[in-house]
Amino acid sequence: MQRRNVGMSGLTVSALGLGTMNWGQEVSEEAAREQLRLFTDAGGTLVETAARYGEGQAEAILGGFIGDTVARSELVLVAQGGTTRTGSRRLDGSRRGLLDSLDASLSLLGTDHVDIWLAPSPDSAVPLQETLSALEAAYVTGRARYVGVSGYAGWEFARAAATASFPLLVNDVEYSLVNRGAERDVLPAVEAFGAAVLAWGPLGRGVLTGKYRGRIPTESRGASDVWAPYVEPYLAGKPQRVTEALCTAARGLDLQPHELALRWLLHRPGVASAIVGARTPQQLKEILQTSASPVADPIAAVLDEVSA
Q1: What phi, psi does 53 have (nearest 5°)?
Q2: What is the pLDDT of residues 119-148, one digit of tens each?
Q3: Which ranges carry the NADP-dependent oxidoreductase domain (predicted)?
């Protein structure tokens, strides 16, 4: 798998990252282990987790695999803190909340550091300087080799990066053919500060696989009461037209829709890695076969136009 530098840093990560949001919930521990094996065997390095995933279950499962299924040195661990692990999952961008969250994550992961640690979306109840002070503490003590944020608008990232006395390396945001909002201001902001985007939802929450065309499969997230609101915004209107155009182009290139969607995204300026998730090892295996080669200019232009 292709390795890429994150922004202007010396840190390299795999073009595709493995997300663990569903581990311990939709994905059993054994299936998660198989996913990690498939990912690392394919050359993947970046594994993303968060305190809120399963209220710590995902971190605990991943921690159980490190040193057993895969060596710690083979992974680039990305962790996100700043939310409570039980109850209402309240956002907490305070220094105490963030650093307590980091220490709990390190304990569950069974490591003394993560490679990239992210503060969550801005907490309106906490001054920016306080959130930054927690990131700085993690950075200077070595508990995080690099730090960044998640879900910051472009102006929010620029303000934070200009205020901080240390480098903010990453903004973790949703980005795909059916959600190009990051291009308005997030991508220009991260590039201006030598940072990069980690793109979550690169397959449009599943719709860019083409599986929702004309129907909602009974085994899919769209058929689940819990997950349906997450998928529904991309099932009709413009996202539906984008998906149809993608499927048509992919068929002409003898590719699967998800392959073309990922190849388009991986060559957008400022994107270091696309974080993919899967409910089954077989789904992940299909995704990992994606080539990182660029899309031909005429096809890219059509996709750009229909999804602009």
Answers
A1: -70, 110
A2: 998 888 899 999 999 999 999 999 999 999
A3: 16-296
pTM: 0.94
Provide, rounded to the nearest whole percent, the portion of the chain with pLDDT above 70: 94
Place of tokens 């991309």: 234
Give the whole-angstrom CA distance, residue 142 versus residue 113. 7
Length of the chain: 308
Whether residue 113 contacts residue 83, with contact meaning beta carbons closer than 8 Å, is answered with: no
CA–CA gap between residue 100 and residue 84 (Å, rounded): 10
| Spatial separation of the C-alpha atoms in residues 22 and 230, rounded to whole Å | 14
CA atoms within 13 A on the CB side of 243: 21
Closest CA relative to residue 285, chosen from 41, 112, 5, 74 = 41
CB-based contacts of 107-110 (< 8 A; 24+ apart in sequence): 108/56, 108/59, 108/60, 108/63, 109/49, 109/59, 109/62, 109/63, 109/66, 109/77, 109/79, 110/63, 110/64, 110/66, 110/67
Q: Give the pairing of strands 168-174 and 144-150.
A: parallel
